[in-house]
Amino acid sequence: MFEFLKMKKLADENVFQKHRCFSEFEKRWIKRKDCSNLEQSIIKKQKETNIKAYCAYCKKTTKMKIDFLYAAKQADGKLIPNFRERIVCPECNLNNRLRATYHLLENIEPNLKTKQAYITEAVTPLFELLKNKIKFLVGSEYFPENDAAKVFISHVNREINNEDLTKLSFENNQFDFVISLEVLEHVPSYRQALREIFRVLKKNGNFIFSIPFVLNSQKNIVRARMNNGVIEHLLPAEYHGDPVDNAGCLCFYHFGWEILDDLREVGFCDVGVYPYASVKFGYLGDGLILYAKKINDE
Length: 298
Ligand SMILES: [Zn+2]
Prior knowledge:
The structure is a single chain. By secondary structure, the chain is of the alpha+beta class. It has one domain (about 15-295): Vaccinia Virus protein VP39 (Rossmann fold), CATH 3.40.50.150. The protein contains seven helices and 18 strands. Strands 6-5-9-10-18-17 form a six-stranded mixed beta sheet. A hairpin with a 4-residue loop joins strand 1 and strand 2 (about 60-65). Zinc ion (ZN) binds near residues 55, 57, 58 and 91. The site of zinc ion (ZN) has 8 residues, from loops.
């Protein structure tokens, strides 16, 4: 009984609040004071810390380490932990942003065991962990130099689906969920990718995704673009880690609130940005997840 009450209390903390546009965010979003205080005290001490936090994937409290791996430097020379990519749960090995993504997924659909989902990754630990929670999960990676529908990847010792987000091989109305984490910024024609995601979702299907997002920018920031098949850099080239390509992957965009208009244009409803922060769940830093729903077919 006590355990149940404790769980309920945790679940009641309103971690995810949806913001539908920049002005709503500016008016309403106030980061929790306990989160900022904890972040500031860790930055002040410049020392690794352990916190006890509730893992939304494992459904229990675990001891999570806040370290300085991938830390950034402040103007005064002090290191700021990479809160977003760290605070790893020692049991499931999911970091802050992945635990939060799973958390929101389950808030939207508590009954994942009956659902069909497509995720734009297939060699990651998250893909393996989601298979335990979702009834039918398809994952893919993208191999632009290869036309084959499946590509053998030696480090996972199996064939991986090869999908181009701008021309997915799936039927219309196939999935209850599409999940895409840190991928759209690498797709030059991301609007075409949004149309494809809309197409393969069922009616009432959900699109959950993360991208580099600039909270104080209305416009999407174009870093690079394709010009007659040639990459043209408008800002210094930025490459992100790619689980199937050691060379990394060029980042074409940092998105702003304009992406919500792009989603609405494609036909999505209920579009929003969910910033999240919670000491209880070990969500420090400035994490956010984006969401859109397909209500109608057009
Ligand atoms: Zn965990």
